[in-house]
Protein backbone atom coordinates (compact mmCIF):
# COMPACT_ATOMS: atom_id res chain seq x y z
CA UNK A 1 0.00 0.00 0.00
CA UNK A 2 1.60 3.27 -1.11
CA UNK A 3 0.84 6.97 -1.07
CA UNK A 4 0.16 8.86 -4.27
CA UNK A 5 -0.23 12.53 -3.47
CA UNK A 6 -1.24 15.01 -6.19
CA UNK A 7 1.46 17.14 -7.77
CA UNK A 8 1.92 20.75 -6.77
CA UNK A 9 0.07 23.31 -8.87
CA UNK A 10 1.24 26.88 -9.31
CA UNK A 11 -0.88 29.60 -7.73
CA UNK A 12 -1.00 33.23 -8.86
CA UNK A 13 -3.48 35.35 -6.88
CA UNK A 14 -3.52 37.90 -9.72
CA UNK A 15 -4.46 35.40 -12.38
CA UNK A 16 -6.15 32.35 -10.91
CA UNK A 17 -9.55 30.76 -10.42
CA UNK A 18 -9.06 28.70 -7.26
CA UNK A 19 -10.57 25.24 -7.36
CA UNK A 20 -10.56 24.84 -3.60
CA UNK A 21 -12.19 27.12 -1.01
CA UNK A 22 -8.97 27.47 0.99
CA UNK A 23 -7.49 29.57 -1.83
CA UNK A 24 -10.27 32.12 -1.69
CA UNK A 25 -8.81 35.48 -0.66
CA UNK A 26 -10.92 35.57 2.51
CA UNK A 27 -9.04 32.50 3.78
CA UNK A 28 -5.76 32.68 1.88
CA UNK A 29 -4.73 36.10 3.16
CA UNK A 30 -5.24 35.30 6.88
CA UNK A 31 -3.39 32.00 6.38
CA UNK A 32 -0.45 33.83 4.80
CA UNK A 33 -0.42 36.31 7.68
CA UNK A 34 -0.48 33.54 10.30
CA UNK A 35 2.39 31.62 8.68
CA UNK A 36 4.41 34.83 8.17
CA UNK A 37 4.10 35.60 11.89
CA UNK A 38 5.09 32.02 12.76
CA UNK A 39 8.30 31.95 10.71
CA UNK A 40 9.18 35.62 11.25
CA UNK A 41 9.27 36.64 7.60
CA UNK A 42 6.86 37.28 4.75
CA UNK A 43 5.36 34.09 3.35
CA UNK A 44 3.03 33.83 0.36
CA UNK A 45 1.45 30.84 -1.33
CA UNK A 46 3.17 30.03 -4.61
CA UNK A 47 2.16 26.38 -4.99
CA UNK A 48 -0.57 24.15 -3.62
CA UNK A 49 -1.68 20.54 -3.45
CA UNK A 50 -5.38 19.82 -3.10
CA UNK A 51 -5.53 17.16 -0.35
CA UNK A 52 -9.30 16.82 0.07
CA UNK A 53 -9.16 13.15 -0.96
CA UNK A 54 -6.88 12.43 2.03
CA UNK A 55 -8.99 14.13 4.70
CA UNK A 56 -12.56 14.34 5.94
CA UNK A 57 -12.26 18.14 5.61
CA UNK A 58 -11.39 20.38 2.64
CA UNK A 59 -7.60 20.48 2.95
CA UNK A 60 -4.44 21.38 1.11
CA UNK A 61 -0.69 21.78 1.33
CA UNK A 62 0.47 25.33 0.62
CA UNK A 63 4.08 26.25 -0.14
CA UNK A 64 6.17 29.27 -1.04
CA UNK A 65 8.72 26.90 -2.58
CA UNK A 66 10.78 26.62 0.62
CA UNK A 67 8.36 26.27 3.53
CA UNK A 68 5.11 24.28 3.41
CA UNK A 69 2.06 24.05 5.62
CA UNK A 70 -0.91 21.72 5.79
CA UNK A 71 -4.28 23.42 6.21
CA UNK A 72 -7.79 22.12 6.67
CA UNK A 73 -11.15 23.84 6.83
CA UNK A 74 -14.15 23.30 9.08
CA UNK A 75 -17.51 24.97 8.70
CA UNK A 76 -19.02 23.23 11.73
CA UNK A 77 -20.54 25.43 14.41
CA UNK A 78 -17.96 24.09 16.88
CA UNK A 79 -15.12 23.89 14.38
CA UNK A 80 -12.78 26.13 16.38
CA UNK A 81 -13.25 24.02 19.50
CA UNK A 82 -12.61 20.82 17.53
CA UNK A 83 -9.41 22.16 16.00
CA UNK A 84 -8.17 23.59 19.31
CA UNK A 85 -8.68 20.22 21.00
CA UNK A 86 -6.97 18.45 18.09
CA UNK A 87 -3.87 20.62 18.49
CA UNK A 88 -4.01 20.13 22.26
CA UNK A 89 -4.16 16.36 21.74
CA UNK A 90 -1.16 16.42 19.42
CA UNK A 91 0.86 18.44 21.91
CA UNK A 92 -0.15 16.10 24.74
CA UNK A 93 1.03 13.05 22.79
CA UNK A 94 4.32 14.76 22.00
CA UNK A 95 4.94 15.98 25.55
CA UNK A 96 4.02 12.72 27.30
CA UNK A 97 5.40 10.12 24.90
CA UNK A 98 7.87 11.95 22.69
CA UNK A 99 6.29 10.85 19.41
CA UNK A 100 6.64 12.97 16.30
CA UNK A 101 3.86 15.42 15.46
CA UNK A 102 3.56 18.15 12.83
CA UNK A 103 4.56 21.50 14.34
CA UNK A 104 1.34 23.32 15.27
CA UNK A 105 1.07 26.84 13.82
CA UNK A 106 -2.44 27.83 14.85
CA UNK A 107 -6.05 28.34 13.84
CA UNK A 108 -7.66 31.05 11.77
CA UNK A 109 -11.26 31.71 12.85
CA UNK A 110 -13.54 33.65 10.54
CA UNK A 111 -17.29 34.00 10.54
CA UNK A 112 -18.69 30.50 10.04
CA UNK A 113 -15.30 29.02 9.08
CA UNK A 114 -12.15 27.85 10.84
CA UNK A 115 -8.81 26.83 9.33
CA UNK A 116 -6.22 24.77 11.20
CA UNK A 117 -2.60 25.24 10.10
CA UNK A 118 0.35 22.95 10.91
CA UNK A 119 3.78 22.57 9.38
CA UNK A 120 3.68 20.11 6.49
CA UNK A 121 5.75 16.94 6.65
CA UNK A 122 7.21 15.08 3.70
CA UNK A 123 5.74 11.62 3.29
CA UNK A 124 7.74 8.67 1.98
CA UNK A 125 6.61 5.39 0.45
CA UNK A 126 5.89 2.68 3.00
CA UNK A 127 8.05 -0.41 3.12
CA UNK A 128 8.29 -2.96 5.93
CA UNK A 129 10.37 -0.43 7.89
CA UNK A 130 7.70 2.28 7.77
CA UNK A 131 4.92 -0.12 8.78
CA UNK A 132 7.00 -1.23 11.76
CA UNK A 133 7.55 2.40 12.72
CA UNK A 134 3.79 2.91 12.96
CA UNK A 135 3.56 0.01 15.42
CA UNK A 136 6.56 1.25 17.38
CA UNK A 137 5.12 4.76 17.58
CA UNK A 138 1.80 3.44 18.86
CA UNK A 139 3.59 1.40 21.51
CA UNK A 140 5.54 4.46 22.66
CA UNK A 141 2.27 6.30 23.18
CA UNK A 142 1.02 3.31 25.19
CA UNK A 143 4.00 3.41 27.55
CA UNK A 144 2.40 6.43 29.22
CA UNK A 145 -0.04 5.49 31.99
CA UNK A 146 -2.62 7.50 33.89
CA UNK A 147 -4.54 7.31 37.18
CA UNK A 148 -8.00 6.76 35.61
CA UNK A 149 -9.71 6.09 32.29
CA UNK A 150 -10.64 9.30 30.51
CA UNK A 151 -9.08 12.77 30.50
CA UNK A 152 -9.56 16.16 32.10
CA UNK A 153 -11.27 17.47 28.97
CA UNK A 154 -13.51 16.08 26.27
CA UNK A 155 -12.38 15.54 22.68
CA UNK A 156 -13.83 14.56 19.32
CA UNK A 157 -13.85 11.27 17.41
CA UNK A 158 -14.31 12.66 13.92
CA UNK A 159 -17.36 14.93 14.34
CA UNK A 160 -18.56 13.12 17.47
CA UNK A 161 -18.23 14.55 20.96
CA UNK A 162 -16.31 12.17 23.25
CA UNK A 163 -17.13 12.38 26.93
CA UNK A 164 -13.86 11.77 28.79
CA UNK A 165 -15.02 12.30 32.37
CA UNK A 166 -12.75 9.93 34.32
CA UNK A 167 -13.84 6.57 35.73
CA UNK A 168 -11.79 3.92 37.50
CA UNK A 169 -13.33 0.87 35.78
CA UNK A 170 -12.73 0.22 32.08
CA UNK A 171 -15.91 -1.77 31.37
CA UNK A 172 -17.99 1.01 32.91
CA UNK A 173 -16.07 3.69 31.01
CA UNK A 174 -16.47 1.86 27.69
CA UNK A 175 -20.18 1.40 28.29
CA UNK A 176 -21.09 4.82 29.66
CA UNK A 177 -18.64 7.10 27.85
CA UNK A 178 -18.46 5.33 24.51
CA UNK A 179 -21.13 2.76 23.58
CA UNK A 180 -24.24 4.29 25.14
CA UNK A 181 -23.73 7.75 23.58
CA UNK A 182 -23.11 6.33 20.11
CA UNK A 183 -26.01 3.88 20.40
CA UNK A 184 -28.31 6.78 21.28
CA UNK A 185 -26.89 8.76 18.38
CA UNK A 186 -27.60 5.94 15.93
CA UNK A 187 -31.11 5.53 17.36
CA UNK A 188 -31.82 9.27 17.12
CA UNK A 189 -30.61 9.22 13.52
CA UNK A 190 -33.29 6.62 12.78
CA UNK A 191 -30.72 4.05 11.68
CA UNK A 192 -31.10 1.32 14.32
CA UNK A 193 -33.85 -1.35 14.00
CA UNK A 194 -35.37 -2.51 17.30
CA UNK A 195 -33.70 -5.93 17.08
CA UNK A 196 -30.30 -4.31 16.59
CA UNK A 197 -30.86 -2.00 19.56
CA UNK A 198 -31.63 -4.95 21.80
CA UNK A 199 -28.51 -6.80 20.69
CA UNK A 200 -26.25 -3.83 21.42
CA UNK A 201 -27.94 -3.35 24.81
CA UNK A 202 -27.32 -7.01 25.61
CA UNK A 203 -23.67 -6.63 24.61
CA UNK A 204 -23.26 -3.60 26.87
CA UNK A 205 -24.72 -5.53 29.80
CA UNK A 206 -22.12 -8.27 29.24
CA UNK A 207 -19.08 -5.98 29.07
CA UNK A 208 -17.73 -6.88 32.54
CA UNK A 209 -17.38 -10.47 31.30
CA UNK A 210 -16.04 -9.52 27.87
CA UNK A 211 -13.37 -6.86 28.42
CA UNK A 212 -10.63 -9.27 29.49
CA UNK A 213 -7.98 -8.74 32.14
CA UNK A 214 -7.79 -5.40 33.93
CA UNK A 215 -5.28 -3.04 32.35
CA UNK A 216 -3.68 0.12 33.62
CA UNK A 217 -5.20 3.28 32.06
CA UNK A 218 -3.08 3.88 28.99
CA UNK A 219 -2.57 6.98 26.87
CA UNK A 220 -4.32 6.46 23.54
CA UNK A 221 -4.13 8.05 20.13
CA UNK A 222 -7.88 7.38 20.10
CA UNK A 223 -8.32 7.12 16.32
CA UNK A 224 -5.27 5.11 15.33
CA UNK A 225 -6.26 4.25 11.78
CA UNK A 226 -3.16 3.83 9.65
CA UNK A 227 -3.82 7.02 7.67
CA UNK A 228 -3.56 8.98 10.93
CA UNK A 229 0.17 8.31 10.81
CA UNK A 230 2.34 9.94 8.15
CA UNK A 231 5.47 7.97 7.27
CA UNK A 232 8.48 10.27 6.89
CA UNK A 233 12.26 9.85 6.68
CA UNK A 234 12.42 10.70 10.40
CA UNK A 235 9.77 8.15 11.41
CA UNK A 236 6.00 7.97 11.81
CA UNK A 237 4.33 11.34 12.46
CA UNK A 238 1.06 11.29 14.40
CA UNK A 239 -1.96 13.27 13.19
CA UNK A 240 -5.72 13.56 13.92
CA UNK A 241 -5.81 12.17 17.48
CA UNK A 242 -8.77 11.76 19.85
CA UNK A 243 -6.67 11.49 23.01
CA UNK A 244 -7.70 9.96 26.35
CA UNK A 245 -6.55 7.23 28.75
CA UNK A 246 -8.15 3.90 27.95
CA UNK A 247 -7.50 0.29 27.01
CA UNK A 248 -4.49 -0.04 24.66
CA UNK A 249 -6.33 -2.62 22.57
CA UNK A 250 -8.64 0.15 21.36
CA UNK A 251 -5.82 1.62 19.29
CA UNK A 252 -4.65 -1.78 18.11
CA UNK A 253 -8.19 -2.60 16.95
CA UNK A 254 -8.41 0.55 14.82
CA UNK A 255 -5.07 0.32 13.03
CA UNK A 256 -6.64 -1.95 10.39
CA UNK A 257 -10.24 -0.87 10.92
CA UNK A 258 -10.73 0.15 7.27
CA UNK A 259 -8.07 -1.84 5.45
CA UNK A 260 -5.97 -4.93 6.23
CA UNK A 261 -2.48 -3.92 7.33
CA UNK A 262 0.85 -5.73 6.97
CA UNK A 263 1.77 -7.78 10.00
CA UNK A 264 4.80 -5.49 10.30
CA UNK A 265 2.65 -2.98 12.21
CA UNK A 266 1.99 -5.48 14.99
CA UNK A 267 5.53 -6.83 14.88
CA UNK A 268 6.83 -3.29 15.34
CA UNK A 269 4.50 -2.78 18.28
CA UNK A 270 5.71 -6.00 19.90
CA UNK A 271 9.30 -4.84 19.63
CA UNK A 272 8.28 -2.24 22.23
CA UNK A 273 5.37 -3.82 24.16
CA UNK A 274 3.60 -7.20 24.29
CA UNK A 275 0.11 -7.77 22.86
CA UNK A 276 -2.17 -9.86 25.06
CA UNK A 277 -3.08 -13.16 23.41
CA UNK A 278 -6.78 -12.42 23.92
CA UNK A 279 -6.66 -9.22 21.86
CA UNK A 280 -7.57 -10.91 18.60
CA UNK A 281 -10.72 -12.33 20.18
CA UNK A 282 -11.65 -8.90 21.58
CA UNK A 283 -10.73 -6.81 18.53
CA UNK A 284 -14.29 -6.54 17.19
CA UNK A 285 -15.59 -5.69 20.66
CA UNK A 286 -13.58 -2.46 20.53
CA UNK A 287 -14.71 -1.77 16.97
CA UNK A 288 -18.37 -1.73 17.99
CA UNK A 289 -17.90 1.91 18.96
CA UNK A 290 -16.66 2.83 15.49
CA UNK A 291 -19.39 0.80 13.80
CA UNK A 292 -22.06 2.59 15.83
CA UNK A 293 -20.60 5.94 14.78
CA UNK A 294 -20.62 4.81 11.14
CA UNK A 295 -24.23 3.62 11.42
CA UNK A 296 -25.20 6.98 12.86
CA UNK A 297 -23.73 8.80 9.85
CA UNK A 298 -24.03 6.30 7.00
CA UNK A 299 -26.98 4.16 8.09
CA UNK A 300 -27.59 0.66 6.77
CA UNK A 301 -24.29 0.19 4.84
CA UNK A 302 -22.56 -0.33 8.21
CA UNK A 303 -25.38 -2.05 10.06
CA UNK A 304 -24.25 -5.49 8.89
CA UNK A 305 -20.70 -4.94 10.14
CA UNK A 306 -22.04 -3.72 13.47
CA UNK A 307 -24.30 -6.73 13.96
CA UNK A 308 -21.61 -9.19 12.85
CA UNK A 309 -19.31 -7.76 15.50
CA UNK A 310 -21.95 -7.67 18.24
CA UNK A 311 -23.14 -11.22 17.64
CA UNK A 312 -19.65 -12.61 18.27
CA UNK A 313 -20.04 -11.69 21.95
CA UNK A 314 -23.66 -12.64 22.67
General description of the model:
There is one protein chain. The chain contains 9 helices and 12 strands. With about 325 residues, it is of the alpha+beta class. The protein folds into 2 domains: about 10-120, 2-Layer Sandwich (Phosphorylase Kinase, domain 1), CATH 3.30.200; about 130-310, Alpha-Beta Complex (Aminoglycoside 3'-phosphotransferase, Chain: A, domain 2), CATH 3.90.1200.10. Strands 1-2-3-4-6-5 form a 6-stranded antiparallel β-sheet, with helices on both faces. A two-stranded antiparallel ribbon has the order 7-8. A two-stranded antiparallel ribbon has the order 9-12. Strand 5 and strand 6 (about 115-120) form a beta hairpin. Helix 3 packs across helix 7 (about 265-270) and helix 6 (about 250-255) packs across helix 8 (about 280-300). The mean pLDDT is about 95.
Oligomer: single chain
CATH topology of the largest domain: Aminoglycoside 3'-phosphotransferase, Chain: A, domain 2
Mean pLDDT: 93
Strand content: 15-25%
CATH architecture of the largest domain: Alpha-Beta Complex
The largest pleated sheet is described as: 6 strands, antiparallel
Cα distance, first to last residue? 35 Å
Q: Write out the strand line-up for the largest beta sheet, numbering strands in chain order.
A: 1-2-3-4-6-5
What would you call the shape? Answer: globular
Structure class = alpha+beta
Enumerate the spans where pLDDT stays under 50 for 5 or more consecutive residues: none
How do the SSEs run, as a string of H and E? EHEEEHEEHEEHHEEEEHHHH
What Rg do the Cα atoms give? 20 Å
Amino acid sequence: MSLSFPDYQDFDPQNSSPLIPLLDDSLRIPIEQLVSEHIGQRWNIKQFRDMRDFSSHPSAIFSNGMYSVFVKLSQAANGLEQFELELKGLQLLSELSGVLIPTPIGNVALEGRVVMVVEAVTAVERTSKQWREIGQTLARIHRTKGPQYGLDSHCYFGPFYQDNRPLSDWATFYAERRLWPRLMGAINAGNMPTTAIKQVEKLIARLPQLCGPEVEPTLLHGDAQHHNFVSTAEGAVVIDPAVYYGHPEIDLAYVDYFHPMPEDVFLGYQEELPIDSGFYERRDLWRVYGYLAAVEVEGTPYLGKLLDAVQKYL
